[in-house]
């Protein structure tokens, strides 16, 4: 329809121009054989009619196209909004940190390896244990035994242990074998591979390096087995060992 309107419009415009030329220069459109000259009034009237019909068709067709185009745009916008809403409702599949066991499973595994002086009591998990600023996590704190304490971060999603922090406070006897044994038992409870002499030697190595650099508060990290260990020390707070997923 729009093509027909354009043809009529251009035809009318051509006839209109011919009528104007005919009125000014009749000889320009004179029939060479008969010498007859078309009536300029008839040509002008025909051009006017063609122009009016072309403009009328264009006025009818163009709004329809605009309405159709607007409908397509509106449908696309609605589809985009629906997709956005669906993506907003869809739960996130992003992975979260986990040590692969619950706090109670860790407690059971640790107590099997620890001496009676350093066994873990029942863990009280809640939001009031230093993790108020971490959305999606609970936590716990407990004194394990003389000079040793732990803090744990727990995923609200599945209740698994996300991170474990052990602290050996400064004491007169220093970092004795029993403290190494406690930390080794914690590591082995989370990853049985840490029971091997080779892995225990690696863990002991980063702990000793942290103790040597306690005045500089340097952090020493090592991925051992399936977990990552970070050790640091200071003369005021003692030794800190953070166990987290790799």
SS elements, strand count: 6
Q: Please, what is the average pLDDT? A: 77
List the helices and strands in order. Answer: HHHEEEHHEEE
Rg value? 43 Å
Instruction: Specify the structural class.
Output: alpha+beta
Helix content estimate: 40-55%
Low-confidence stretches: 79-94
Transmembrane segments: 43-62
Keywords: Membrane, Transmembrane, Transmembrane helix
Care to give the gist of this entry?
With 246 residues, the chain is of the alpha+beta class.
Description of the molecule:
The chain is of the alpha+beta class. It folds into two domains: 2-89; 103-245, no CATH class. It is 46% helix and 19% strand. It has five helices and six strands. Strand 1 (137-145) and strand 2 (148-155) form a beta hairpin. Helix 3 packs across helix 4. The two termini are 68 Å apart. Mean pLDDT is 77; it is low at 79-94. Keywords: Membrane, Transmembrane, Transmembrane helix. The chain crosses the membrane at residues 43-62.
Keywords:
alpha+beta, 46% helix, 2 domains, 246 residues, 6-stranded antiparallel beta sheet
Secondary structure layout plus pairing:
Blueprint lengths: L1 H23 L15 H50 L13 H11 L23 E9 L2 E8 L5 E8 L8 H14 L6 H16 L7 E5 L2 E8 L3 E8 L1
Antiparallel strand pairs: 1-2, 2-3, 3-6, 4-5, 5-6
């Amino acid at each position: 329809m729009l093509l027909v309107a354009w043809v009529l419009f251009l035809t009318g415009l051509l006839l209109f121009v011919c009528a104007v030329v005919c009125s000014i220069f009749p000889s320009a459109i004179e029939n060479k054989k008969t010498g007859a000259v078309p009536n300029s009034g008839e040509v002008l009237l025909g051009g006017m009619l063609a122009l009016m019909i072309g403009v009328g068709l264009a006025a009818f067709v163009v709004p329809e196209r605009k309405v159709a185009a607007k409908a397509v745009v509106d449908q696309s916008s609605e589809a985009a909004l629906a997709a956005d809403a669906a993506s907003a409702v869809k739960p996130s599949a992003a992975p979260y940190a986990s040590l692969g066991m619950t706090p109670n499973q860790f407690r059971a595994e640790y107590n099997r390896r620890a001496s009676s002086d350093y066994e873990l009591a029942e863990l009280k998990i809640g939001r009031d244990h230093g993790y108020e600023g971490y959305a999606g996590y609970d936590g716990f704190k407990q004194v394990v035994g003389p000079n040793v304490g732990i803090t744990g971060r727990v995923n609200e999603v599945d209740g698994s242990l996300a991170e474990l922090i052990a602290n050996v406070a400064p004491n007169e006897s220093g970092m004795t074998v029993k403290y190494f044994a406690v930390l080794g038992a914690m590591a082995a409870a989370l990853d049985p591979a840490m029971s091997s002499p080779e892995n225990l030697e690696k863990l002991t190595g980063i702990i000793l390096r942290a103790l040597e650099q306690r005045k500089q508060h340097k952090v020493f990290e090592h991925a051992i087995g399936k977990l990552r260990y970070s050790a640091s020390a200071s003369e005021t707070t003692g030794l800190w060992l953070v166990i987290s997923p790799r």
